[in-house]
What we know:
The two termini are 26 Å apart. The chain contains one helix and ten strands; from the N terminus they run H-E-E-E-E-E-E-E-E-E-E. The chain has one helix spanning 2-17, and strands at residues 19-21, 25-28, 40-46, 50-58, 64-70, 73-77, 80-85, 90-95, 105-112, 119-121. By secondary structure, it is mainly beta. The protein has a five-stranded antiparallel beta sheet, with no helix packed on it. It has one domain: Immunoglobulins (Immunoglobulin-like, Sandwich), CATH 2.60.40.10.
Amino acid sequence: MNKILRASILILWLQLGWIRVQMKVEQSPGVLILQEGRNASMMCNYSIAITSVQWFQQNHEGHLTSLLYIVSGTKQKGRLKFTVDTKERNSHLYITDSQPGDSVTYFCAVEAQCSPDTCSLYMKP
């Protein structure tokens, strides 16, 4: 029984220690002040190649809503426009003619595209 426990712990340790992805995602500006009727934009920068970007909004009660999933190029959703530039490693959210209901928290999430340069197998010492 003790050998089985040690083998299980070793397998778990190996699974947790094999894959390493170092990625940094930053949004700017950190705080976006919206003025009713004005245009505003927010940028999401990421440090490695990605397969997609997803933009979300979270209202004041904490409800999370997916706004858009985008792989590349430009997409429009009402007064919201989204862009992804994979070469520059950024995505933009543009809000035109902002309304009081646009005053929520916006954030982006990226899906990493693993390659030998960005994801590697290694053993933790």
